[in-house]
Design goal:
The protein is globular and about 70 Å long. Helix 12 links the parallel strand 13 and strand 14. The longest helix has 26 residues. It folds into 3 domains: about 210 residues, 2-Layer Sandwich (Nucleotidyltransferase, domain 5), CATH 3.30.420.40; about 100 residues, ATPase, nucleotide binding domain (Nucleotidyltransferase, domain 5), CATH 3.30.420; about 40 residues, no CATH class. It has a 7-stranded mixed beta sheet, with helices on both faces. Strands 5-4-1-2-3-15 form a 6-stranded mixed beta sheet. It is α/β, with parallel strands linked by helices. The chain is built from 14 helices and 15 strands. Bound molecules: adenosine-5'-triphosphate (ATP) and pantothenoic acid (PAU). Its main location: cytoplasm.
Length: about 425
């Protein structure tokens, strides 16, 4: 991806150097995620300007003696294999100046007699980072742009991010079943315990009992990396979006062995299996005298997506059952708000649980860890501020249609590179 693309993209008016206030990173096995706050031009609440509607909600009367800055929380991702694009983006947008450099500047200006700070180019800047890549790429960040990564634990960030989003963002959680998307109102006093299933390259399953109270209780290596890796080998597609696009159009019946294939078109109703239930994923390929190239790539992609989603859904249900958990929240970029993936996960959970355990999804599915890393310094009080807003939380601007036929054609459409309005405390 061209790192300069965002300069001309839909966020160009929001992302200008000098407007970035705080940045955090989550560098995983497949994707590097960025969360950063950009200030609005008319951003200060509590000054004479009094431009912001937030003033009316009483937020500026907080116990803190800091102005409240209105702006946007931005979400962006890069493939980890193209980590240099991510670095170039950070550099070209001067995102890293939203790290500690500004704070150092302010401190030095306030400190009479202090020398002028060095130019940004010669200053080491520290930014919060989580995920395995915070370790793997630490030297690269330092060598290229003198950025020092302040490492936060991946699981801590994942849980902190999920808890924060579920507790504070309006319309964050939703159910998806039979083409129906339904937002779920989360009562933060009745959120815990729940099972967090993060479907990244691999899959982590975490029992969450409160803020900072969690245990990783299960996991599986058959996850998003498996879908992307096997899909690439089997369909020869060049990008994840291409693979996802194929899966929209495919029909798994061409590849999977169904109950009806075994039972001569009949249901096996005695044990509750309809003729269309998959009896064996990819099983049809054994009984036909065909090579891989004789199958349509879209059918292979569909079957693969279904196999992996079903498997994760079933393990999730069993894990929830094992710990008596009624709610399962799915996150991770594997999902990509793909209706078919969400539907398959929900059906897999529901098939055995009969509604006892509920499958839910998060709007910011792939950014849980990055949001957690962003929150970890909490020097800007985003959490405190949003929590104090009570009902008047800033609405999420991430409304979109989940039409089954909708194909995510463009970067930025269904891919999570978005932003929401919010406010932070000024330094
Ligand atoms: N544009 C994309 N490029 C590559 N993979 C994508 C893309 N969009 C979604 N994915 C899927 O998302 C997965 C990565 O999800 P996520 O970013 O949540 O995990 P990660 O942090 O990279 O992995 P881990 O936590 O295991 O280190 C990929 O393996 C792939 O299945
Ligand atoms: C190794 C991590 C934690 C890295 O994010 C993730 O990819 C994962 O949870 N993998 C699954 C490993 C397992 O539990 O089998």
């Amino acid at each position: 991806m061209d790192p300069r693309r965002a300069e001309t993209g839909k966020n160009s008016d929001q992302i200008q150097s000098g407007h970035v206030y705080h940045l955090a990173l989550d560098i995983g096995g497949s994707l590097a995620k960025l969360v950063y706050f950009t200030k609005n031009d008319e951003h200060i609440v509590g000054s004479e300007k009094k431009k912001s509607p937030m003033k009316a909600s009483g937020i500026s009367n907080s116990s803190r003696n800091s102005p409240v800055l209105n702006g946007r929380l931005n979400f962006k991702k890069f493939e980890t294999s193209k980590i240099n694009d991510c670095l170039e983006f950070i550099n070209s947008m001067k995102l890293h100046l939203g790290g500690v450099y500004k704070i150092v500047m302010i401190a030095m200006v306030m400190n009479a007699g202090c020398q002028q700070p060095e130019s940004p180019g010669s200053q080491t800047i520290t930014i919060k980072a989580t995920g395995g890549g915070a370790y793997k790429y630490a030297d690269l960040f330092k060598e290229k742009f003198r950025i020092s990564l302040d490492k936060e634990d991946e699981m801590d960030c994942l849980v902190a991010g999920a808890n924060f989003l579920l507790e504070t963002i309006h319309q964050e959680a939703f159910t998806y079943m039979g083409n129906q998307k339904q937002f779920v109102w989360i009562d933060k006093n009745d959120l815990y315990p729940y099972l967090l299933v993060n479907i990244g390259s691999g899959v982590g399953m975490i029992k969450v009992e409160g803020d900072g109270k969690f245990e990783r209780v299960s996991g599986t290596s058959i996850g998003g990396g498996t879908f992307w890796g096997l899909g690439k080998l089997l369909t020869k597609c060049k990008s994840f979006d291409e693979l996802l696009d194929l899966s929209y159009r495919g029909n798994n019946r061409a590849v999977d062995m169904l109950v009806g294939d075994i039972y001569g078109g009949m249901d096996y109703s005695k044990i509750g299996l309809s003729s269309t239930t998959i009896a064996s994923s990819f099983g049809r390929a054994i009984s036909e005298n065909k090579e891989r190239d004789d199958y349509k790539p879209e059918d292979i992609a569909r079957s693969l997506l279904r196999m992996i989603s079903n498997n994760i859904g079933q393990i999730s249900y069993l894990t929830a059952l094992r710990f008596g958990l009624k709610r399962i929240f799915f996150g991770g970029f594997f999902i990509r708000r793909h209706p078919f993936t969400m539907d398959t996960l929900s059906v897999a959970v529901n098939f055995w649980s009969k509604g006892e355990a509920k499958a839910m999804f998060l709007q910011h599915e792939g950014f849980l860890g990055a949001v957690g890393a962003f929150m970890s310094s909490d020097k800007h009080g985003l959490k405190e501020l949003l929590a104090n807003q009570k009902v008047e939380r800033p609405p999420s601007k991430l409304s979109f249609s989940l039409d089954q036929t909708q194909v995510p054609q463009q970067d930025g459409e269904l891919n999570g590179d978005e932003s929401i309005e919010c406010s932070v405390y000024g330094a």
